[in-house]
Amino acid sequence: MTKDQFIISKDAQATAEAFGDYLMAEAAKKEQFHVALSGGSTPKILFDYLAENYADAAQWQKMHFYWGDERMVPPTDGDSNYKMTKDRLFDKVPVPAENIHRILGEEDPADEAVRYGSLLTQQMNVVNGLPVFDMVILGMGGDGHTASIFPHEIELLQSSNVCDVATHPESGQIRVTLSGPVINAASEVVFLVTGSGKQEKIDEIYHQKGGWESYPASFIKPTDGKLQWYVDEAAVAEVFK
Ligand SMILES: O=C1O[C@H](COP(=O)(O)O)[C@@H](O)[C@H](O)[C@H]1O
User: Fold this and answer.
1) Which end of the chain is more exposed for a tag (fewer CB within 10 A), N or C?
2) CA dist., res. 98 & res. 74, Å (int)
3) How far apart are the CA of 169 and the centre of ligand 1, in A?
């Protein structure tokens, strides 16, 4: 990772705005744009920004939305990444319903991981057996997890599946996640990470020190694609000193 892969904004709001403008500009360049969304805190601000500032954008017609991970709960549950996106974005912008490809959180996790994996390979270009997203948006948890690849299941970074079943280490909540190889096959991966709570982990990952090798986020490096980290000043306060 190099410093020029970091786009640093003043705070979480400015980070979401900078990334939102970039996302919509990238989508405008393509005939179809397949993007995987994340859950977590920063995307909430992003979705509010897009709903307020891009409600009439032509890009919604050609954007196809997927998720990097989902909690295995019904789509009406407060924990559902899909529900958060629907409430904040899809209910407010003209995305065709057929362009929204959610992970069915109400289904059996193992069956759903297989079904979603095949859906992805039908929906987009496949290279070396892996679907190629135009962009995967990721968060990073305070423990260094990304999507739902947690430190205790770091082997999912090398999974031979497109999607896997994962378990949250504290709550035991079952998730379905993209596997590491699929994330790294994307044309572009963007981390959206804000707040001082993430500073220590970013510092360790960037300088390859401390526990960096146990953090799944350390190993997200697109094979043939671009990697960017959209962060705020608090998240990188000590990193480049
Ligand atoms: O559980 C999850 O957490 C991560 C990070 O979320 P954040 O609130 O710390 O930004 C997120 O990327 C993932 O999609 C979500 O399911």
Assistant:
1) C
2) 19
3) 13
Residue 223: phi, psi to the nearest 5?
-60, -50
Ligand 1 atom at minimum distance from 42 CA: 10
Instruction: Give the single-character DSSP code of 187.
Output: S
- CA 226 to mean position of chain CA atoms: 14
C-alpha 123 to ligand 1 mean position (Å): 25
How many whole angstroms from 43 Cα to the centroid of ligand 1?
A: 9
* ipTM score of complex: 0.91
Which protein residue's CA is at the shortest distance from atom 15 of ligand 1? 39
Find tokens 């920004």 and name the residue: 49
Please name the residue whose Cα sits nearest to atom 10 of ligand 1. Answer: 40
Ligand 1 in reach of 38 Cβ (< 6 A): yes
The pTM score is 0.98
- Span 81-86, mean pLDDT? 98
- Give the closest residue (by CA) to ligand 1 atom 3: 40
Q: So what CATH class is 3-139+159-168+181-195+219-229?
A: alpha beta
| pLDDT band at residue 10 using 50, 70 and 90 as cut-offs | very high
Ligand 1 lined by 40 (C-beta under 6 Å)? yes
Residue 198 near residue 188, CB atoms below 8 Å: no
pLDDT digits (tens, 9 = 90+) for 88-112: 999 999 999 999 999 999 999 999 9
Per-domain boundaries in the chain: 3-139+159-168+181-195+219-229
